[in-house]
Design brief:
Layout (H helix, E strand, L loop, with lengths): L10 H33 L1 H37 L3 H36 L4 H15 L2 H16 L3 H25 L3 H25 L15 H10 L1 H24 L2 H38 L2 H38 L3 H14 L6 H13 L3 H27 L1 H25 L1 H4 L2
Helix pairs in contact: 1-2, 1-6, 1-7, 1-10, 1-11, 2-3, 2-4, 2-5, 2-8, 2-9, 2-10, 3-4, 3-5, 4-7, 5-6, 5-7, 5-10, 6-7, 9-10, 9-14, 10-11, 10-12, 10-13, 11-12, 11-13, 12-15, 13-14, 13-15, 14-15
Length: 442
């Protein structure tokens, strides 16, 4: 039975509606992990370090797709809730066309900027060459990468989350198969991994374009539009938290890499890379749930169904709390096997990575609250509070912690800083949720 945004949501219905988005985000993260797995085991530690070193820069450029997806989805959902389908389709088309055009511009700029940026961050020698090679190949597909990001949100808004999941699975399988072929069989190393990822991103961006350009059974369709500066600004404002979150995480990753290079050397960056791959998968569950439930929140807010809005928030807090406990247990339990899979070939690196896992797993107890809280305010079209939560969570708290705590605990302080930042962001999110409960009547 099809679930509609206008439905009344029980725990079961909410989980069923959000599940495709959760699986979609997890799968997206998973095939990124496969990239690292093949590079680490077939191309070696330096190549693996290079991929993790330059990836934050690429993520910064791709984050624009998240901004249009999350911010545009919130505005489209609210418009659908107001019973204005024609306007919703015009906005949808505007956001897709605008993000693709911007993606082309950013890709060209990125190709020229990647070498000086990698050098500025501290890469040199073979590591610098691998960073530039990997980055430039990936950037060719940047416009489609951005579309893939935003369509993950738009498929949910169009009441087609399962179709969005199918596209992600196809894209992911493309990446995995090409990784095995180009890196595992042909031994193309960093270039093969980049080509596999770029090809999968093109697939993930083109399939949704073909679907939405044709007549379909969803709530949305690409077609004619007109320039609407006010709506573009509103979408960018709404999605600024998602953009800021991704940019901040990338900047912080660069800072972590710099600190680890200073305290340990290349082994530290490699260990952090493994940790972040697993972090991507685990946090993808929180992000997927937030993406999957945001259109529900936006719709009922636009329709004035405040009782339903309160119910969705209450149920979501319970779901995230239970999930956080499961995540923490899984993080502790997977510390040894995941470390062994990625870096089992190096005894010292394995020991370092394993210890980092045991410490950092505590962040999963608090991380879901900040992710959901930011998305919740985005869905309410309050981009300012959403951006503030993301800014504090992914930038201020992280930077302060990673600069200060290593002075006290050395290398362990770097790992503890991740946990401290997530805890502080959870506290701030709870404060904002209580402060705005009367205004939004939840």
């Amino acid at each position: 039975m099809k679930i509609k945004l206008s439905d009344s949501f029980t725990y079961k219905k909410l989980l069923r509606f959000a599940l495709p988005s959760v699986v979609m985000m997890v799968f997206t993260s998973l095939y990124g992990v496969v990239d690292g797995l093949f590079v680490s085991n077939f191309a070696g530690k330096t190549a693996f370090t290079a991929v993790n070193f330059i990836m934050p820069f690429i993520m910064i450029l791709g984050a624009v797709g998240f901004m249009f997806g999350a911010g545009g989805s919130a505005l489209i959902s609210k418009t659908l809730g107001e019973k204005k389908p024609e306007k919703a389709n015009a906005l949808f088309s505007l956001f897709v066309y605008s993000s693709f055009a911007l993606g082309v511009v950013l890709a060209v700029a990125g190709v020229f900027a990647i070498r000086p940026i990698a050098s500025l961050l501290g890469a040199e020698g073979n590591m610098l060459s691998d960073c530039v090679l990997y980055g430039r190949i990936i950037l060719i597909a940047l416009p489609f990468y951005m579309l893939q990001f935003e369509f993950q949100s738009f498929f949910v808004t169009a009441e087609k989350p399962n179709l969005g999941l199918a596209v992600t699975v196809i894209s992911g399988c493309t990446n995995i198969v090409l990784d095995a072929l180009l890196v595992g069989v042909f031994k193309w190393g960093v270039a093969g991994a980049a080509a596999a990822t770029a090809a999968s991103q093109v697939v993930g961006g083109i399939i949704p374009l073909c679907y939405f350009f044709r007549a379909n059974s969803s709530l949305l369709r690409l077609g004619k539009t007109r320039f609407d500066g006010k709506s573009l600004v509103k979408a960018c404002t709404n999605g600024s938290s998602e953009l800021l979150s991704n940019i901040s995480m990338s900047i912080v990753s660069m800072l972590y890499n710099s600190q680890l290079l200073r305290y340990i050397g290349e082994d530290g960056i490699a260990a952090y890379g493994v940790l972040m791959y697993v972090n991507f998968i685990f946090f993808a569950v929180y992000i997927g749930y937030a993406v999957g439930t945001a259109p529900v929140t936006g719709y009922h807010y636009g329709a004035g169904n405040y009782g339903e809005l309160k119910g969705v928030l209450k149920k979501s807090v319970v779901i995230i709390s239970v999930t956080s406990l499961v995540m923490f247990g899984a993080g502790e339990g997977l510390a040894v096997p995941m470390s062994k899979i990625f870096v089992g070939y190096d005894t010292e690196l394995f020991a370092l990575t394993k210890r980092a896992f045991f410490i950092c797993s505590f962040m999963f107890l608090f991380g879901g609250i900040g992710v959901y809280g930011s998305s919740f305010f985005t869905a309410l079209n309050n981009g300012l509070i959403s951006a503030l939560i993301s800014f504090l969570r992914t930038l201020v708290f992280q930077i302060a912690a990673v600069l200060l705590l290593p002075l006290v605990w050395g290398v362990d302080g770097i790992w503890v800083s991740i946990v401290a930042a997530e805890f502080l962001s959870a506290v701030v999110t709870v404060i904002f949720l209580f402060a705005y409960r009367k205004k939004y009547r939840y």
